[in-house]
Write a structure and sequence with these properties.
This protein is α/β, with parallel strands linked by helices. The protein is about 45% helix and about 15% strand. A seven-stranded parallel beta sheet has the order 3-2-1-4-5-6-7, sandwiched between helices. Strand 2, helix 2 and strand 3 form a beta-alpha-beta unit.
Length: about 240
């Protein structure tokens, strides 16, 4: 199968690429910029037994998404699975927010995911099959201060997932909503005291590893989830059960 993953060079995106590669799938490796991260990702996919085609994708740029559509058309590459993993994070006080921050976060996470999905869904509708998995966040479910744009964008992705599950059937559309996951977004991870405080709030006593989320994405995209659509799989170690 051909698996298109945005944000595939690090964190959850890379772990997902490797998980699919272990099954011998071909990865369309969506990358934002040519960097050592991309080279490392390509090597890990090869080592896992998969093949890949690198493809520049800036989901915040509609022209980049349109170019992707043209490139896929030229190469006649059918997409069996789309994983929308690319996104940005910004944390600040509400009163310090600006239109620029709003446009950047909402434009990337929500608008970008929306139009990225539209492009690939056109192809899937023509083929009559496909699976889409969106990477949301518990921030889109549980209210928290200081990252409103991010939370709103992820809440939008969750609702979009449910709407598209009805709109695009029999194409399946699901989402994962992880809580704290070890990644470059966790700027506090060097603060052992803060990490300990946050882990203490989680019944299972640990953060997600990217591989935990990748395994859930793999399941939702697989035939084992053939009768699952419009669902949001929460990975929070039981934290939500305490709210």
């Amino acid at each position: 199968m051909n698996i298109l993953i945005t944000g595939a060079t690090s964190g959850i995106g890379l772990a997902t690429a490797v998980r699919f590669a272990k099954e011998g799938h071909h990865i369309i490796l969506g990358y934002f910029q040519n960097s050592p991260e991309r080279q490392t990702a390509e090597l890990k996919i090869q080592q896992a037994g998969g093949t890949f085609s690198p493809m520049h994708i800036d989901i915040a740029d509609l022209e980049s998404i349109s170019e992707l559509e043209n490139n896929l058309g030229k190469t006649s590459t059918p997409i069996d699975v789309l994983v929308n993993c690319a996104g940005v994070y910004d944390e600040h006080e509400f009163l310090d927010s600006t239109p620029e921050i709003w446009d950047h976060v909402i434009g990337t996470n929500l608008r970008g995911t929306y139009f990225m999905t539209q492009v690939i869904a056109r192809q899937m509708v023509s083929a009559g099959h496909g699976a889409i998995v969106n990477v949301a966040s518990v921030a889109g479910i549980y209210p928290r201060k200081n990252h409103l744009e991010y939370a709103i964008s992820k809440a939008g992705i969750i609702h979009m997932t449910k709407c598209l599950a009805q709109t695009l059937a029999p194409i399946r559309v699901n989402a994962v909503a992880p809580s704290y996951t070890w990644s470059k977004f966790m700027d506090f991870m060097e603060d052992k005291e803060k990490v300990a405080q946050k882990i203490a709030q989680i019944p299972l006593g640990r953060f997600n590893d990217p591989e935990d989320v990748a395994e859930s994405i793999f399941f939702l995209a697989s035939s084992k989830a053939r009768n699952i659509t419009g669902e949001v799989l929460i990975l929070d170690g039981g934290r939500g059960a305490r709210l």
